[in-house]
Amino acid sequence: MKKLHKSDSVIIKMARPLIMIGLSLLLISQLSAQNGSVNFSGNWVLNESKSKLGDGPFRMAASLLNVTQEGNNLSIERTMNGPDGQEMKMTGKYTLDGKECENTGMMDMKTKSKVNWSADKKTVSITSLTVFNMNGDNMEMKSSEIWALDGDKTLRIEATNDTPDGEKKTTIVYDKK
Question: In the chain, pLDDT over 90 holds for what percent of residues?
Fold first, then answer.
């Protein structure tokens, strides 16, 4: 057995805290992975046959979603066909900490939203308020979405919208490309 020199002992004493920090970080990252939140990132295509979109003029669902989730940031690009058949894209940027975010939508309407995680970090809810002017009258439209993954290949969005015709509920299902 090799005898330790005084210099070896000093190196071991100095390295011990670094080793402990490294092991602690490894343990924390493993616990975070086990109890961590889901990641909605991906390119998603509407599965109309599995969706329940309802009837009427507010039957709009994006045909494609491009979702990027990095850290505390969530970016959603929605591609849909407009009333004239032209493809249009809307992008929303959110934080995943419950703080209010403002995005500009169709016809430059401002929408204020908050995103909150469920207690188990498996779903997020996005609550939004859009204020706009229609024929000289200021109007508000409230909406909420609950996002959940069914496995890793299906995104399910339970949406509720307050419309002039009352509350409309839809289930929108997307398949991962």
Answer: 54
Q: Which amino acid is at 87?
A: E
Specify whether 124 is located in the same domain as 147. yes
What is the CATH classification number for the domain harbouring 126? 2.40.128.20
Are residue 159 and residue 128 in the same domain, yes or no?
yes
What amino acid is encoded at 99 in this protein? Answer: K
Are 4 and 65 in the same domain? no
Q: Judging by beta carbons within 10 Å of its beta carbon (0-12, 13-18, 19+), is residue 157 exposed, middle or buried?
A: buried
Sheet containing 42-46: give its strands across. 87-95, 73-81, 64-70, 42-46, 166-176, 154-163, 137-150, 123-134, 110-117, 101-104
Q: Which amino acid is at 101?
A: C
Reported as a single tens digit per residue, the pLDDT across 53-89 is 887 554 578 999 999 999 999 999 999 987 788 898 9
The reported pLDDT for the residue numbered 114 is: 97
